[in-house]
Amino acid sequence: MKIVTISGASKDVGKTNLAVSIIERYKGVAAVKYSLDYEGNGLGIVTDPEVLAQPGTDTGRFLRAGANPVFWVRTNKERLGLDLKKALSLLGPDSRVVIEGNSVLKHLKPALAVFVMNSSWEKMKPSALDVIGRVQIVVEWGNDGGVREKIAEFNPDARVLTFNPIKPDGKDLELLFNHLGSVWRD
Fold it and tell me: Is the Cβ–Cβ distance between 134 and 35 less than 8 Å?
């Protein structure tokens, strides 16, 4: 199984948009969305197409982009690792999978880990600094001139690609797809 994770510095930074672009390029990719439920209501793996396809949801966007299958893992911090393993066990050993989220990197080692951020460190979640240290690629939209140096403090081996994942152009995405191609082999 070849897993690519997409993590991010904050909410609404472009993680889902980037995941959709990858899914559109690599047909037949599975997608896993997880939500941490702090109340403990409705925990489990959602596979119902009617629930997953709801308008305005990340899972709906994954389905419309061509992901197959799509799973929504509703879990809590304590069960995240176990529930992710359960969801991944539903896939074949040759599956290509996109997983969006930061916490997954504590529970699995993907073939490729991508981190999406803007040029502002002020809006970054505290957990994101740990994630930067675990990724191979950082996608930065915008450029304030000092982001590469700051990223290098946390992860000197990370490759930084500067473009806009909210509305990337073809050239921008090709840089990322070249890395993905080495992992997934078109």
Answer: no
Peptide bond into 69 cis (omega under 30): yes
Structural domain total, the chain: 1
Sign of the four-CA dihedral 110, 62, 81, 38: positive
C-alpha–C-alpha distance, residues 126 and 10, integer Å? 9
| pLDDT, tens digit (0-9, with 9 covering 90-100), for 41-88 | 667 899 999 999 999 999 999 999 999 999 999 888 888 899 999 999
CATH number for the domain spanning 157: value is 3.40.50.300
Cα–Cα distance for residue pair 59/70, rounded to 1 Å: 7
Paired with 113 in beta bridges are 5
- CA 57, CA 44: separation in Å to the nearest integer? 17
Task: Give dist(CA 79, CA 82) in Å, integer.
Answer: 5
pTM of the model: 0.89
Contact yes or no for 141/164 (Cβ under 8 A): yes
Assess contact for 10 and 115: CB atoms under 8 A. Answer: no
| Cα(12)–Cα(1) distance, integer angstroms | 28
Q: Domain range spanning residue 37? A: 2-184
Tokens 């893992």 identify what position? 73
Maximum alpha-carbon separation in the chain = 45
